[in-house]
TrEMBL record:
<keyword id="KW-0472">Membrane</keyword>
<dbReference type="GO" id="GO:0016763">
    <property type="term" value="F:pentosyltransferase activity"/>
</dbReference>
<feature type="transmembrane region" description="Helical">
    <location>
        <begin position="288"/>
        <end position="304"/>
    </location>
</feature>
<feature type="transmembrane region" description="Helical">
    <location>
        <begin position="369"/>
        <end position="386"/>
    </location>
</feature>
<dbReference type="GO" id="GO:0009103">
    <property type="term" value="P:lipopolysaccharide biosynthetic process"/>
</dbReference>
<feature type="transmembrane region" description="Helical">
    <location>
        <begin position="204"/>
        <end position="226"/>
    </location>
</feature>
<feature type="transmembrane region" description="Helical">
    <location>
        <begin position="12"/>
        <end position="28"/>
    </location>
</feature>
<keyword id="KW-0328">Glycosyltransferase</keyword>
<feature type="transmembrane region" description="Helical">
    <location>
        <begin position="115"/>
        <end position="137"/>
    </location>
</feature>
<feature type="transmembrane region" description="Helical">
    <location>
        <begin position="246"/>
        <end position="267"/>
    </location>
</feature>
<dbReference type="InterPro" id="IPR050297">
    <property type="entry name" value="LipidA_mod_glycosyltrf_83"/>
</dbReference>
<keyword id="KW-0812">Transmembrane</keyword>
<feature type="transmembrane region" description="Helical">
    <location>
        <begin position="338"/>
        <end position="363"/>
    </location>
</feature>
<protein>
    <submittedName>
        <fullName>Dolichyl-phosphate-mannose-mannosyltransferase family protein</fullName>
    </submittedName>
</protein>
<feature type="transmembrane region" description="Helical">
    <location>
        <begin position="398"/>
        <end position="418"/>
    </location>
</feature>
<keyword id="KW-0808">Transferase</keyword>
<keyword id="KW-1133">Transmembrane helix</keyword>
Length: 529
């Protein structure tokens, strides 16, 4: 509304233009990027197929086609909502059901294509704009800062990529923004009344409901509830006050509402450990810090897998300096009511994710989706810095700050525009190179792709089904013992085979496995026969 009523002002015109471009970039080429491993499991959860169910039908050594793979990714009228809940409980108990329930109904309403399933996240991502404006207003009561934050988020390659992904994180972003805004509102309402009136109770009950919804979208919502609690305790000087008591009761209500899925999680805890075993992988500490710094930079500029370039290093260093100064500037120029929550949102995920990875090992912090609360707080800090410099008439070097804003906005815009034309992105992680794998296989005549259940093969094979030519055949194996190559294929490929399976094949007379392609997550071999 403010953009419309102030449309004659060049600043508001610019913000509106950036917002329109950001919305356009969210919807363009929704089906261009690879439908990657994790999105495949979104479809499998929605359709209601248990892992054992579809793997037993596909990984049985028979020669199958692309359509055989995709059968399990499409709606089956015989599968109900109960099947979806059952799959989540048994196969992925660490993924609460709300997002999957909503997308299931979305899919029934609008169709079964990649565009449709991704469009739910895209539409949800549009609610980020009013939500983040409201959050900034509750913090600063300044429309300029809110509008600059909208501009930063609108053209951010990070938020655009997650807005185009069939996962729960766009929806989660909206809810955590509303939750933070409502917390600030509840605190202010409580501070303005001596007695606990119905209005106060209503505010805190809504806050409870928002946190419960957030938990039913993602377990990572603890990274919102914990910093909110720490913030309130600090704000009240570590005293037991109306606000700390009401927030404590509110969080308790949220947890009680979430108990049904907590029970599911506890009952299937072993499956959770198996599903998240990848987080225990140990890599050098400097590598963790490097990727964490890189992910912060990706809020503003799209830096893909390659990091070993001078330009990328400079971008990361400059961004970290700017972020550090923005946080310092925020603390120096606002009250704890403002900077306290922002700082808690930044520090808590770092303490709970990055530090454990550095101390005991693991790669939890390398998944930037878990750091969304931290990144939102960083965006708001940057927006406060830039907005303050623009509206302060005494600010020296205002032209320099205007140039900095122009660089950030144009850099994000160009990055996102380039990203929109690519068939993969750094967020696709373990499936990043599958388009290249598909190109290699599609160039050959009469190809057969063989794979076992090693590593991420199950999801990646499903993902490849959207990229391979219809004439490509597949043979998926659950047991590779005494395996013999089938006749009638000119080119035979192996996708990320176990070393045992590959060496077993090479022992057969006249066979040799030639390396074709690899990245850190997958490899492709061709059998010379």
């Amino acid at each position: 509304m403010m953009l419309l009523t102030n449309f004659k002002n060049p600043f508001y015109k610019l913000i509106l233009l950036i917002l329109i471009i950001g919305i356009f970039l969210r919807f363009i080429n929704l089906d261009k990027k690879i439908y990657w491993h994790d999105e495949i499991y979104t479809s499998l959860h929605i359709t209601g197929y248990l892992s054992n169910e579809w793997k037993s039908k596909l990984f049985n050594g028979q020669i199958i086609g692309i359509n055989d793979l995709q059968y399990y990714l499409h709606i089956n009228p015989q599968k109900t909502l109960n099947d979806t809940l059952n799959v989540l409980a048994i196969d992925d108990p660490h993924h609460p059901p709300l997002y999957y329930i909503l997308v299931r109904y979305w899919r029934h309403l609008f169709g079964d294509s990649i565009i449709v399933i991704r469009s739910f996240s895209t539409v949800m991502s549009l609610f980020v704009f009013p939500a983040i404006y409201w959050f900034c207003w509750e913090l600063f009561q300044n429309s300029i800062i809110g509008l600059i934050t909208i501009a930063l988020v609108a053209i951010s390659p990070f938020y655009i990529l997650y807005a185009q992904e069939a996962r729960e994180y766009a929806l989660w972003t909206v809810i955590i923004l509303i939750s933070n805004s409502w917390l600030l509102k509840a605190i202010k309402v409580t501070q303005n009344h001596h007695n606990i009136e119905p209005k106060i109770i209503r505010c805190w009950l809504i806050y409870s409901g928002l946190n419960a919804i957030s938990l039913y979208i993602s377990f990572v919502s603890v990274f919102i509830i914990i910093p909110q609690t720490i913030y309130t305790i600090i704000l009240e000087n570590f005293r037991l006050t109306k606000i700390t008591i009401l927030q404590g009761i509110s969080i308790l209500i949220s947890v009680i509402l979430f108990i049904p899925w907590i029970v599911v999680f506890i009952c299937n805890y072993e499956q959770y450990q198996r599903s998240t075993s990848w987080t225990k992988l140990k890599i050098p500490s400097w590598e963790i810090l490097k990727i964490f710094a890189l992910n912060i930079t990706r809020i503003f500029f799209a830096i893909d897998q390659e990091f070993e370039t001078l330009l990328n290093y400079l971008s990361v260093i400059i961004c970290l300096i700017l972020v550090g100064y923005a946080i310092f500037f925020l603390i120096k120029n606002t009250s704890i009511m403002c900077w306290g929550l922002i700082l808690c949102l930044i520090i808590t995920p770092i303490v709970l994710l990055v530090l454990p990875d550095l101390i005991i090992g693991g790669i939890r912090s390398l998944s930037p989706r878990y750091l969304i609360p931290c990144f939102i707080a960083i965006d708001i800090s940057i927006a406060y810095l830039l907005g303050s410099k623009l509206i302060d008439k005494n600010t020296k070097n205002i032209k320099i700050w205007s140039i900095i804003i122009a660089i950030i906005i144009s850099g994000g815009m160009i990055s996102s525009a380039v990203n929109s034309q690519n068939d993969t992105a750094w967020t696709k992680v373990i499936s990043y190179s599958l388009p290249e794998v598909a190109r290699i296989i599609n160039k050959t005549q009469s190809p057969l792709l063989i794979s076992d259940g090693n590593g991420y093969n199950s999801g990646n094979i499903m993902s490849l089904s959207y990229l391979l030519n219809p004439d490509v055949k597949l043979q998926l194996l659950s047991n590779t013992k005494d395996y013999q190559l089938p006749p009638g294929f000119k080119h035979i490929f192996l996708l990320s085979p176990s070393d045992e399976f590959r060496l077993q094949l090479e022992k057969q007379k006249g066979l040799k496995a030639n390396f074709v392609f690899q990245d850190i997550h997958l490899n492709l071999w061709e059998i010379e026969h």
